[in-house]
Amino acid sequence: MAFKPLLHLLLVSVAVSLVLPATSALNIEFVYHHFPQMTAILRQLANEYPELTKLYSIGKSVQGRDLWVMLVTSNPNEEPLLKPNVKYVANMHGNEPVGRELMLHLLSLLLDGYGKDNYITWLLDNTRIHIMPSMNPDGFEASAEGECSGVQGRGNANSADLNRNFPDFFAGPPKVAVQPETRAVMDWIRQTQFVLSGNFHGGALVASYPFDNIPANSPKNFRKFGSPSTTPDDDVFRHLAETYSFNHKNMYLGQTCRDGSPPFLNGTTNGAAWYSLIGGMQDYNYVWGSCMEITLEISCCKYPRSFQLPQFWNDNQKAILQYLGEVHQGVWGRVTDQNNNPIHNATIKVKGREFGSRSTYRGEYWRILRPGTYTLQAEARGYDSVELNVQVAKGVIVQNITLYPQSSTYYEPRSDPTFQKGGLVPSISPVSNAASYTGATVKGVWPTYTRSLKPKEAVIFPRGYLYQTSPQFIDYSPTSNRLLLNYNYFGGK
Ligand SMILES: *[C@@H]1O[C@H](CO)[C@@H](O)[C@H](O)[C@H]1NC(C)=O
Ligand SMILES: *[C@@H]1O[C@H](CO)[C@@H](O)[C@H](O)[C@H]1NC(C)=O
Ligand SMILES: *[C@@H]1O[C@H](CO)[C@@H](O)[C@H](O)[C@H]1NC(C)=O
Ligand SMILES: [Zn+2]
């Protein structure tokens, strides 16, 4: 009867409204988004804001869910020199999903605020912000809303606790096999030089900073009762943690979540002083990623009911934004040789702080420091080391560093008299992991010399020449003045 076409029309209009939502993806509902909905929102935001976003996946979870990351920045397809990379990772424990939702609201806030809000515009113009709403999407799907404590969904689909799964500075490789989610994050950190990071958790209200673990030779009761295990960058970490807690609505008050648990002064704590753990992500970021990461515990209840999400967003919003800006404090610059060619993998350390960072393939380095006077130490294989004093005030000081080839190994191409005389030009320097060079013969075409390599040796040559490494020729004109032979002539097979 007349009923049928009407129903049909109704269905069509429902279908259309599902496909073409009337509203922008910026309107994030205060509910928990399961994986398909979260993915849809990320895709839609990426479509709506191609000039501010790039959506990428760093790998897949055990059950095959993408580990999504949204890059938010002006000109996401360009990488201007020295524009720092920062990241937020949430929901590493599947049953601690408040951060996961806050990340979606953060995306919306940043995209909507660009061009309207001065601070957000400045942030996106000067920072590459990588946001991972869920590092453990499988664990999330296994958890239940309203569960304030407990461990259901904490681990990944192999029940591995991802925040115990990283190589540990004090304890070595993890006891449990490195999980796909952990591996993906490790690769991500290796491929991108992140400078600052925050890792969102739940179950407490505190900003906690490295180290989480303690030296292996610590007295037994250190582990039991909690004793600080500080990094040489303790001043920086304290400041970062306080930036979060003091910009949070109430974290800085240090109120405890449970009767009997100790208060956190200022809402911050050294990780090990709270309790020590092995294989955590923040220690890994600091030691192996040269990235200052802190752990943000943002809800007493691990998986609070969704009606509380507006309150959590309200409490954390300012802290989340202010923390990102902290990357613009310290010293950064480029490491180059005397011809302005970038030097990759130079070590840049601050004297007295043993954990250095390494320059990118474009020679960039970044270092967050509090205002003060520091000595920078830069070194790279084949170059003379350099020490420089820098005065850090509020904000960033740019300090480019020029390294000169080790006096004994550098020869100006053609113009160097030693070279023209046909003397034994190349100097030999030991190279670790160079076992496969054993027995190779290296011959300069002009002038002539021959030198048989000993095990673990490599030859340092001037740039821009043809060299014969019998029987092949190598046209050696890359940006570094090192020739590394990657094959084995006489020793192999
Ligand atoms: C608390 O914060 C204040 C202000 O930054 C600082 O002076 C004080 O040392 C902090 N106390 C602790 C225990 O972190
Ligand atoms: C970087 O330098 C360190 C120490 O000098 C070395 O162990 C490492 O293999 C180098 N990495 C690359 C990618 O060259
Ligand atoms: C440092 O190097 C960058 C990139 O090469 C350059 O743009 C900048 O002007 C240099 N800064 C200083 C202070 O030399
Ligand atoms: Zn957690």
TrEMBL record:
GO terms for cellular component: extracellular space. The keyword Signal applies. The keyword GTP-binding does not apply. Residues 1-25 form the signal peptide. It holds the Pfam family Peptidase_M14. GO terms for molecular function: metallocarboxypeptidase activity; zinc ion binding. GO terms for biological process: peptide metabolic process; protein processing. This is Peptidase M14 domain-containing protein. It comes from Larinioides sclopetarius.
